[in-house]
Amino acid sequence: MENVISVLSWIWYNFFDRAAMMMMVLVFVGQMLSRRTLLDSVMGALKGYIGYIVYQTGTGGLFSTFQPIMMGMRQVLGMDILVNDDSLGAATLTSILEGFGRTTSLQMAAMAAGFIIACLLVWAKRYTKCRSLIIQAHILSGQAIDMVPILLVMYPLMNDFTCILAVGAFLAVKWCMLSNLTVEPAQDLTDGANMCVGHTQMIGDRIGYEYGRYLEKKAKKQGKEVKKFENMELPGWLAVFNDMYVASFLVMLLYFGVLISLIGKEGMMTVDPSLGAGTSFPLYIFHTAGKFPVYLVILLTGMRMFVAELTVAFSGISERILPNTLPGIDCAAFYGFVTNGSVITLSFLIGSAAMTLLTTVGMLTGFPFVCLVGFVPMMFDSATVGIFAHHRGGIKALVASVLTVAVADVFLAAVAAHIIGFAQYGGVGFQYDNAVTLAVFSPIWKYLGWAGYALVLAIMLAVPQIQYLKNKKGYFLAAEDWEQYKEVMGEDL
């Protein structure tokens, strides 16, 4: 067993864990299956690789910009509070894993097992009703890193083989169930780009989209239209919010300005080596805020490059291997389909403000279930849920749906951490989907044992079945032929 795990670990670290490499190979194979020439396939693979590297540069830059501020809030301001952030969460989970005498190779083996089982679930979609497959390496690995320590805490007597199968099966069903929820919303937003969401807020994407549809139908019955940014011209100085990049800079100038000012120059110097004693503190704040739209431009540029090639590639893969299956990709890939950048900016602004308010109120009142949310969930959970809600329901749906993000990432994440027993470690990485599912499932695991594990799998497997029963005539068509789907569904869309 140890040799098998070692081999799987080597494959993972040298292939799957290199998301750009995985993207390049996937694009090449897919484009060859699409009967493109060898030269075109090689060029497409390289463009996909370059685009993904550019995309990673953007996301990495956004993270590195915010991370010193997070450190300053904890170290300088002395905020002894549970932090919901990917980096701190990974450190927590690694220490827990080591406490069980296990290594990260176990997590990678579980991830590989989960991906194989997910492929089988999609292959058998006639029975499972699973129409999507998450192909985002960092999402697959991140959730494997989460789940191995969690299930070890819940079922501490598991051996390695049982752990790999248990975690793998759970992840596979979860990945298929959650990404499947986003098929209709993603196809609608992109008008049939043949991709769905494979990220960390898929439950919120579906909730926001459905609430938006409800508001849209309600408005039509009243002979009205929902208010959207596309139909609005902001007056006077507010017109700056019509430009995504200018608006994001101004928002971050205010947001970073408040946080950095609270930490102070001396405090920031202890966590950010780039800030010297002779540097103007106001200009430092200005430049820090300016990095946000810069990295946003980089992110969107890279996203458009790799998504264009991936779409061609996956069409070939789906036709030959997993026909009519949609790839679950990074949430940022959908930002390019938003016609007004203010939607992204406003979603982030409302989400960050709501999270900050809830965290502050929770701290002041001594509420035990509260998190300080890091940049990644604050930005990407809020913005993604917001764009899906706004697409159908306009500004009202956007605001209401983004507020659910704040509740999930601040409160439900803390509830899950306390139930599992992770709160004492100071950091978790429970973004929207993890926050909701773990808050619901962890008590079942804790009090029902392995019967609870089986019950959780049954609940998740039932979700696609329910979706199918609610829309038999269009369910598979939504992933197969969006234009025909629109004709068949008509007003029901």
List the helices and strands and how they pair.
Blueprint: H1 2-16, H2 19-33, H3 38-75, E1 83-84, H4 86-99, H5 104-123, H6 125-128, E2 132-134, H7 137-154, H8 160-181, H9 183-190, E3 196-197, H10 202-221, H11 244-263, H12 265-271, H13 281-320, E4 326-329, H14 342-365, E5 372-373, H15 375-420, E6 427-428, H16 432-470, H17 477-480, H18 482-489
Parallel strand pairs: 1-5, 1-6, 2-4, 3-4
Helix pairs in contact: 1-5, 2-3, 2-13, 3-12, 3-13, 4-7, 5-7, 5-8, 7-8, 8-16, 10-15, 11-13, 11-14, 14-15, 15-16
**What pattern of helices and strands is seen along the backbone?**
HHHEHHHEHHHEHHHHEHEHEHHH
| DSSP E strands, number | 6
Strand order of the largest sheet: 5-1-6
Structural category is mainly alpha
State the assembly state of the protein chains.
single chain
Strand content: under 5%
Could you say which overall geometry the principal axes of the C-alpha atoms support?
globular
Question: What distance separates the N and C termini?
Answer: 50 Å
- Total number of distinct structural domains: 1
Largest sheet: 3 strands, parallel
Q: Which regions are unreliable across 5 or more consecutive residues at pLDDT < 50?
A: none
Rounded average pLDDT:
85
Helix fraction, binned, reads over 70%
